[in-house]
């Protein structure tokens, strides 16, 4: 058995920030999960729907691995990424890192992981690997999934090799801190501005504040869209609150990030943004509650109320990001 020494297997709320936390703590940098999320400019919004999808998806963050790339670039970290279509090379890549005494990050499809509570395909899941033997691998996943967990090498290989939306080609990665002192506190304002710019002026139309307005119009139609409202609507709400989002579709994490930043930077615009995202987090949880009630009761009025709140959320988050962009 090979186990990396001194790995703190701290499972947190979101998969990518959980893995980043494991890798960075082993390098000597211990930041809170909200700080990792915010420095990676992780907040976003997307209403994702297509003919091939049985039900629309509400996403509250940037696409998988973009947060990691943002964080590395912003802090001057060395991010080494390996991808391959060869199962043998994929294993050799990660085993070599663990053999050298370092944890390694993996992007994979959570459906194949034996410990995973919900057997659904999600190709953007991220874990940290810190050990293995002839049969199993040792991983760190979110607190919800158990923190320090194990799965078979065969299941890990299947998860890494899966093809489909948001998957990567057996992606693994390591992070190395720069040799000079890392002044991460000076990077919080650029991270906030970058996130605000992307939210207010996204590169494509179906991202950011405009898409929340789109959701406000379409969520009230969901009862006619779903085959099994009693299952599908509560499941959609559960994904918003419990599926590694930290609650409120990642708004709790960003609210807490802004709160930490307000202790570092004395700025009126930052305090305004923090106040508005505190309001937004509550509203998103209210939206999830209404979607659940609509599924349980079949009453479209709950979805109409959710639409009203989403219109308000579009305004609140726009105002928040406009303030934060003026930092």
Automatic annotation (TrEMBL):
Residue span, DUF4872 domain: 155-324
InterPro entries membership: BtrH_N (IPR026935), DUF4872 (IPR032369)
Source domain of life: Bacteria
Domain Butirosin biosynthesis protein H N-terminal: 14-142
Name of a matching Pfam family: BtrH_N
Transmembrane residue ranges: none
Entry protein name: DUF4872 domain-containing protein
Species whose genome carries this gene: Sphaerisporangium rubeum
């Amino acid at each position: 058995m090979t186990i990396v020494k001194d790995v703190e297997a701290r499972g947190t709320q979101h998969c990518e920030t959980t893995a980043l936390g494991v890798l960075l703590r082993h390098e000597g940098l211990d930041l809170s999960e909200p700080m990792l999320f915010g420095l990676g400019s992780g907040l976003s919004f997307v209403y994702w729907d297509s003919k091939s999808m049985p039900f629309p998806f509400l996403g509250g963050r940037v696409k998988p691995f973009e947060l990691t790339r943002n964080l590395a670039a912003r802090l001057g970290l060395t991010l080494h990424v390996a991808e391959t279509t060869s199962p043998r090379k994929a294993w050799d890549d990660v085993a070599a890192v663990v053999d050298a005494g370092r944890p390694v990050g993996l992007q994979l499809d959570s459906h194949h992981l034996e410990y995973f509570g919900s057997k659904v395909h999600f190709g953007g899941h991220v874990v940290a690997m810190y050990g293995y033997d002839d049969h199993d691998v040792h991983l760190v996943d979110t607190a919800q999934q158990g923190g320090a967990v194990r799965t078979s090498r065969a299941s890990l290989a299947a998860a890494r090799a899966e093809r489909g939306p948001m998957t990567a080609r057996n992606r693994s990665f390591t992070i190395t801190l720069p040799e000079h002192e890392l002044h991460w506190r000076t990077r919080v304002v650029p991270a906030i501005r970058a996130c605000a710019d992307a939210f207010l002026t996204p590169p494509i139309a179906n991202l950011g504040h405009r898409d929340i307005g789109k959701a406000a119009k379409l969520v009230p139609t969901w009862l006619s869209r779903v085959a099994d409202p009693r299952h599908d609507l509560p499941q959609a709400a559960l994904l918003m609150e419990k599926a590694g989002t930290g609650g409120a579709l990642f708004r709790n994490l960003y609210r807490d990030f802004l709160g930490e930043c307000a202790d570092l930077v004395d700025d009126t615009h930052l305090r305004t943004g923090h106040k508005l995202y505190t309001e937004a987090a509550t509203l998103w949880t209210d939206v999830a509650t209404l979607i659940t009630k609509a599924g349980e009761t079949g009453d479209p009025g709950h979805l109409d109320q959710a639409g009203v709140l989403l219109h308000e959320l579009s305004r609140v988050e726009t105002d928040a990001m406009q303030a934060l962009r003026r930092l």
